[in-house]
Amino acid sequence: MKLDLHLGGLATATQSAPAAEAANAAGVWSAETGSDPFLPLAVAATVTDRVELGTAIAVAFARNPMTVATLAHDIQSLSGGRMILGLGSQVRAHIERRYSMEWSKPAARMREFVRALHAIWACWDDGEPLRFEGDFYRHTLMTPAFSPLPFPDGRPRVFLSAVGTLMTSVAGEVADGLLVHPFSTSRYLREVTLPALARGLERAEDPTRPFELTAPSFVVTGDTDEEYAAADRAARERIAFYASTPAYRGVLEVHGWGEVQEELNRLSKAGQWKEMGNLIDDDMLDAFAVCAPPDEVGARLSERYGDVCDRVLLGGLPVGPEQLQRTVDALGASSPDPRRFTTGTGA
Questions:
Q1: Distance CA 163, CA 309 (A)
Q2: Rounded to an integer, what is the distance from CA 346 to the centroid of its chain?
Q3: Residue 100: helix, strand or coil by DSSP?
């Protein structure tokens, strides 16, 4: 598998992006958690030459296809064709109450969002009139003064983040890759995600196109007992946060843990965020996270996901450049032929 790293925010991009490239990471990704996801990539594009630059994720429904198409165009052009546009839907409460945007039929809306992006990019590349009219988005005006130059290095690839089967299927149908949500397990990936993805690939215009699968990556590790304990606690609290979301209950139910979601949801509504992590027992932690000493993280990730995933996005590994390089090497040996996912098989 390829190893990708989280870029961090805007303030650290000039240091973290070159460091990741020096360690031979395949990509760096910027998240929309307390920071804009696009600005750090623009900075990273100016201080790197090789590493891919992705959003993991940008919230699609907080924006519209035209604004996202423009941002992705700028970063793709600035980086010499290294942009991966990772999009996610977020959940209804955040779209309506945090972003004050409309929520409806998220899977159908995301399918149309991606198709609108490609229609806009085709207009800029080919000079044809813009005529995209869908159920959720309508783009029918593009004048020369507002049209960017054609992509000099090809269009960005589009990856979608998904948990449920409908959105996963949409990724297979219209995207170039799937960002498997961190709140996933190897069992859920194999029993639920891969079949749903295969159904989407069967509906795609080109089901044999290159398509990359990115593995989930909760990691508990540390060079000292204190570091390991801190990583363990942080992972339990983050898993609990995701598990409190009703939309993600299906992942828990695969393992027979559905009732935990109700209690976590109750605690979240009471603002008891720290207490929620106490409900994540060792079995749940092991299902969602790779727990290992630093020198064994790469091998453990490879064992868990190397036969079905092309890349893994790793965050929070508290090690130096030498250990990071060993993790890159361990993962790189497991998948000599990336982009191998095809309909009906994961390898």
A1: 16
A2: 18
A3: coil
Q: Which residue in 153, 156, 84 sits closest to 120, CA to CA? A: 156
Task: Count other C-beta atoms under 10 Å from residue 256's C-beta.
Answer: 8
The first and second tokens of residue 163, run together, are: 């948990």
Structure tokens at 146: 């507002």
Whole-number Cα distances in Å, 259 to 239, 246, 264: 15, 11, 9
Instruction: Quote the Cα angle for 331-86-176, to 5°.
Output: 75
Average pLDDT taken over every residue of the chain: 90
Q: Going by DSSP bridges, is the β-strand pair 83-88/27-30 parallel, antiparallel, or unpaired? A: unpaired
Distance CA 198, CA 190 (A): 11
User: Nearest CA to 4 among 60, 76, 55, 59?
Assistant: 55
User: How far apart, in whole angstroms, are the C-alpha atoms of residue 180 and residue 159?
Assistant: 10
Evaluate the omega torsion of the peptide bond into residue 57 and state whether it is cis, within 30 degrees of 0.
yes
CA 258/CA 37 separation, integer angstroms = 32
132 bridge partner residues: 139
Decide if pLDDT at 345 tops 50. no
Q: How many CB atoms lie within 10 A of CB 142?
A: 17
Which residues contact residue 81 at a Cβ distance below 8 angstroms, ignoring those fewer than 6 apart?
A: 151, 152, 153, 154
Q: Tell me the average pLDDT across 214-231.
A: 90
- The string of pLDDT tens digits covering residues 123-153 is 999 998 999 999 999 999 999 999 999 999 9
Sequence-distant (6+) residues with CB within 8 A of 11 are: none
Look at residue 343 and tell me whether its pLDDT is greater than 60. no
Quote the DSSP letter at residue 16: H
> How far, in Å, CA of 314 to CA of 161, rounded?
15
Higher pLDDT, 193 or 335: 193
